[in-house]
Amino acid sequence: MKSFYRLMLRALNSGVSVFAVIAYCAVSFLLGQAANDMNLFAASGAVMTIFGLFSMIRFTTIEKYLQQESIIANSTGVTGPPLSSGEAAKITKENQDRARLRLRQELRSEIQGILLSVAGTVIWAYGVYVPVFASSAGT
């Protein structure tokens, strides 16, 4: 199970994955237009919704699941020996920089997940009603 979650995490961390989901929806739209049937396009919204939801839980659930033992090991409450003020300032700045970067990544992932979930749900629900724009060959 952990290997599946690691694979999922790698896919979610890839910048290409969002474009792949959007490209999948675009290709299904074009195929639906060619076949005069927008059901495939509507179904592609489900894929986008699922990807969006996984993107939302990327930092909160998936990484936490994979790092359970590390989280437990670091939850000792021990702060260590007293440090000089220079060392303390350096450590504080490094921790704040890491926290800032992590927060930025989490927020980007969650906002992206929300947008994909909303767009995917709308496409899933109403994509079948998109008219086919290609003119009939026989008329």
User: Would you report the number of β strands?
Assistant: 0
* Average of per-residue pLDDT values: 80
The percentage of residues in β strands lies in under 5%
Number of helices, where a helix is a run of at least 4 consecutive DSSP H or I residues: 6
Fraction of residues in helix: over 70%
What are the secondary-structure elements, in order, as H or E? HHHHHH
- Alpha carbon gap, first and last residue: 55 Å
Please sum up the structure shown:
Helix content is 77%, strand content 0%. The protein has 139 residues and is mostly helical.
Features:
mainly alpha, elongated
Layout of strands and helices, then pairs:
Layout: H1 2-13, H2 16-35, H3 39-56, H4 58-66, H5 68-73, H6 85-126
Can you offer a commentary on this structure?
With 139 residues, the chain is mainly alpha-helical. It has one domain (2-67, 93-127). Helices cover 77% and strands 0% of the residues. The protein has helices at residues 2-13, 16-35, 39-56, 58-66, 68-73, 85-126. α1 (2-13) runs antiparallel to α4 (58-66). The longest helix is centred in the last third of the chain and has 42 residues, at 85-126. The radius of gyration is 22 Å and the shape is elongated. The N and C termini lie far apart (55 Å). The mean pLDDT is 80.
